[in-house]
Amino acid sequence: MLDTRDAIEFYHSLLDPRTAGESHDQLLAQQQQRGLFFGDRPLCTVLRPRFLHPRQFRTLQDSIQAIMPAFAKAHQAALADADFRYQFRLDDWEEDLVHLDPGFPSPSPTARMDTFFDEKDELWITEYNAETPAAIAYNDVLTEVFLGLPVVREFEKRYDLRPLPGRHSLLHALIDSYRAWGGHEKPRIAILDWREVPTYSEFVLFRDYFESHGYECVIADPRDVAYQNGRLYAEGRPVHIIYKRVLISELAARGGRNHPVFKAVRDRAVCMVNPFACKILHKKASLAVLSDEANAGLFSARERRAIAAHIPWTRVVAERTTEVDGRTVDLLNHLAKHKNDYVLKPNDEYGGKGIVLGWEVDQAHWERALRTALAEPSIVQKRVNLPKFPYASWVDGDVHIYDRMLDTNPYLWYGQYVSGCLTRLSTASLLNVTAGGGSTVPTFVVEKRNP
Fold first, then answer.
1. Structural domain that includes position 366
2. How far apart are CA 54 and CA 425, in angstroms?
3. Which of 61, 111, 239, 375 is least buried, going by the fewest C-beta atoms within 10 A?
């Protein structure tokens, strides 16, 4: 494993009671001041950021860049062939929407891969968040907060910390997409989501950032927008770009397919990022499509090597035979017998909803979950064994160091390259911000300074 242990040990050695207490108080105060909360919970509850070795970050960039042509081929094949597209298990109402031309090349100009480095430092991609990747602004501002902590002041005297910002890339993706779509005016941006969502404070950070770069921005609830005279209006004035944070499925469920946003996008009256076409790859079944031996002929030898190296064995749950470790098996019987090796995931959920970890439930629970997965579009994925890393917290006036699991979630731009990275910690096996012991930390590439 690429070693960051010396950096971690040195960082923790700097957390004497005075430094740790001051750093904790400053971290908490800065999160309150800057709106770094998920609902009413502070995003970060630990005193150490995530450290990536430079070669780890290069591996992250190179591995994802190598596999993206396979995702692009799968997307193109899905648009061209209804039988192939069925593997993604789109809902009926989504079938027409994904064929709408967004006006720009990429179906997901902004995206996030959820990945893990395992105990051997091998990288595994477990989800492709191709619709509404969150936490970019949270991550950037939390990075700024950590750079100002007393403990980091001392740490940087020995180690170089390279931050991995993302807000600028998001702004570039919005403006590039708008220009390709045909926009010529200086755009007014609408950040679109329900006002009651727990991530609302991140929208404020984005609005302030966009406006600091000269772009007028409004945070708009889908219930408050109107489509009139060929323009989409928010707070009484036209908008040119929708930075869509609301999920398409939620917008359809709560507003119907004749909602003003659907009409405006269909009529090319507004540029929406990400567009409806993102739904194909956003489905968790996209990883099953790449992993399934039935689709191997679609990909080049190089792409097949990248898939084998970085996507854990994944299948859509169905009554079928398939290959597992070179053997042909009945899928459902195999899964029933080997629950400790697998995780079940709904095809289109978020925040850990509906996920069943086979090794954490009894046999009866697992078999019920398999029946549910057979009835409702779901995938099954091979377990990735996760290492644990020490993170310091300030608890009851003292420093406590706990081992936590973590994920590595790079942001992806135009389906082509990685820039920026989200890290989430947890004491539970399910990694998300609401999980047990859950915390978000900024990610830095760390390297020891020359003597």
1. 313-382
2. 20
3. 375
Q: Are residues 224 and 346 in the same domain?
A: no
Question: Looking at the domain assignment, is residue 200 inside a domain?
Answer: yes
- Please indicate, yes or no, if residue 297 is contained in any of the structural domains: no
Give the SS3 label for residue 421.
Answer: strand
In sequence order, the β-bridge partners of residue 234 are 237
Q: Burial-class residue 108 by CB neighbours within 10 Å (0-12, 13-18, 19+).
A: buried
Look up the pTM and report it: 0.94
Strand order in the sheet with 189-192: 217-220, 189-192, 241-244, 271-273
Residue type, 342: Y
How many structural domains does the chain have? 2
- Summarised one tens digit per residue, pLDDT across range 271-284 is 999 999 999 999 99
CATH assignment of the domain containing 333: 3.30.1490
What does the alpha-carbon distance between residue 159 and residue 451 come to, in Å, rounded to a whole number?
10
Low-confidence ranges of the chain (pLDDT < 50): 1, 433-437
pLDDT in tens, 109-135: 999 999 999 988 899 999 999 999 999
In sequence order, what are the beta bridge partners of 423? 441
pLDDT value of position 437: 47
Longest dimension (CA), the chain: 66
